[in-house]
């Protein structure tokens, strides 16, 4: 998969660990910043990654801030994005299977690097089930419009 990744200053230390892990799994990754631990604003990175995913330039995105909440809310403002914030693997897996999420977010102040890897792995390996879930995803898209 071709993945976009972004973070704010709080997610800066966790991001290279996740990038290395994604590459170990055979994925292509493009980093959309932040590129330092200097204080910055998470909405700009949520928006950048979300726009790239929505345009179809990437198969999915990963976002990291302190809790994952603010950056995922920002991403969800972009039409076509279904970003989920997860702190454990089961919800990450079901978010893809049932909701066809295209961006995964988590918080570096909430989870450690090993748990983050487990969450990423479950999300990447899951596939959208369609069927009864398709109607609900379509309903979400109608709300956007």
Please describe what this structure looks like:
The model has no long low-confidence stretch (mean pLDDT 97). The chain is built from six helices and five strands; from the N terminus they run βαβαβαβαβαα. β1, α1 and β2 form a beta-alpha-beta unit. The longest helix is centred in the first third of the chain and has 13 residues. The relative contact order is 0.17. It has 145 residues and is α/β, with parallel strands linked by helices. The N and C termini lie far apart (28 Å). It has a five-stranded parallel beta sheet with strand order 2-1-3-5-4, with helices on both faces.
| Biggest β-sheet description | 5 strands, parallel
Mean pLDDT: 97
Order of helices and strands: EHEHEHEHEHH
Spatial strand sequence of the major β-sheet: 2-1-3-5-4
User: Would you identify the regions where 5 or more consecutive residues have pLDDT less than 50?
Assistant: none
- Global geometry: globular
Structural class: alpha/beta
Number of discrete helical segments: 6
Tell me what portion of residues adopts beta-strand conformation. Answer: 15-25%
Helical residue percent band: 40-55%
What is the CA-CA span between the terminal residues? 28 Å
Rg (C-alpha, Å): 14 Å
**Counted beta strands:** 5
